[in-house]
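Residues determine shape. We examine one folded chain.
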Amino acid sequence: MNAVNGTTHPIVFSGAQPTGQLTLGNYLGALKNWVAMQSDYDCIFCVVDLHALTVRQDPKLFREQIFDLAAIYLACGIDPEKSTVFIQSQVPAHAELAWILSTFTQMGELERMTQFKDKSQRHRNNINAGLFTYPTLMAADILLYGTHKVPVGADQKQHLELTRDVASRFNGAFKPVFQVPDPLIAAEGSARVRDLQEPTKKMSKSVESDLAKVMLMDDPKAILKKFKKAVTDSEGVIRYNEELQPGVANLLNIWAAATDHSLHEALDHFSHNLYGKLKVETAEAVNAVLVPVQEEYKRIRDDRGELVRILEQGADAANQRAEVMMVKVLDALGLPAHSRRSHV
């Protein structure tokens, strides 16, 4: 049982960086699943703003992007009465635990992180220590709450493995303190949303072509235009084959995820083999999902006071839970923890 909130559900932690709008892929591949998890898990969802500092941010814009992302969480269906929703920087224990865990993380492990290698190539003029130790802060995010499960995509599996290694190393050196987390693999039917112009690549908000990506706040007409111009092929047959027909497979994946149908049902529905109808109906399905999210987002974002209240409430709950773990960590290390016990 969770000693803080009294639930018996396994604990799930996840978060996203507040660096601009999210894509349709972020929604169908992650946020939609987060919403569904709330019934079966003790969910902790965080705006990981500290992670975003590895790249220089404009302070005024960055602050608004933090609130934007929190509002998107809520608009998509994250319920603050069911889940803990907060901003990472409002819980100081994240940074504190990250420092402690950095002393249990080997340089060689961090050097092998593929994301560090990739980002070092893209940010050659700012290869800072934070970029290098990013996975240790991620480990702190996860381990701070006794997390059992972490929703991960292919690009985060390596970081979770490091988290597991660091937790086991700490537990082995002292006593069992950290829960060693397991990956939570997305359920069948979760969308792998690809670039609309280069469907062999993942949809990314950083891609230059506006036609390649669908953003959560895109106008319905713009979304329809993007899908109409989506790359398919000259086969003239609607089949699911990611290698031979990646564009068609991408549209089928998106339509199925947006309408909560299986791929088998999608193939039955589009047995007419008309690419034009596939594109239009996929756009219509996406708009049917996103328009209500956009309307709810506007409502939430327009009431900043209420949004701040929700996030402060979440931060209070997260701080309480974090303090329980930090007392255990300090005790295990032999660091004085008596002054913190009054907060637990």
